[in-house]
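Dear colleague,

Thank you for sharing your sequence with our group. We've completed the structure prediction you requested, and as agreed, I am returning the results in plain text so they can be pasted directly into your records. Please verify that the sequence below matches your submission; if there's any discrepancy, let me know and we will rerun it promptly.
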Amino acid sequence: MSVTFDTRELKAFQLTIQRMGGIPAKVATKAAGKGATVVRREVRSRIPVGETGELKRGIKRKGERSRIKGKKVYDLMFDPAKNSIFQKPVKHPGEAGSTSTKGGHAYYPASMQYGFLTRSKGGGYSYVPGYQFMDKGTEAAAAPASQAVIDTAVKELQNEWLKK
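Please find the predicted structure tokens below.
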């Protein structure tokens, strides 16, 4: 998968940023937030509908803290406040050779994303494949998210330029 950008106005844009003394932090934050929102919306549309719908409501974005001025990164994660809903006890932990369930709990979002082992009729285990909603959603939203980041950054930088 590749993403292409229209770079005709890039030189003028770069000169504008240099004249302003770099990208203001609030511009970077707003632009990155718009891109994260686009990705979050696409990922949520691909999450399988369960009995309660908590999986869809449980995904949120969290801003990464950085020492670099003008840098903002958002991470999509499942809400830690909903761990009581997402963590389920395992009846026989470690039985299928899984090291992640030896603590006695399985994490529901991870099993929906990556799959899990279950007992088969007649003995043995079979693998139930995951939905890969995070991977597929982020791949599908890559181009629209990058365009949203660029559009928002240009708009906000123009507003900042007009203020000065």
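Summary note from our side: The first helix runs from residue 10 to 20.

Kind regards,
the structure core
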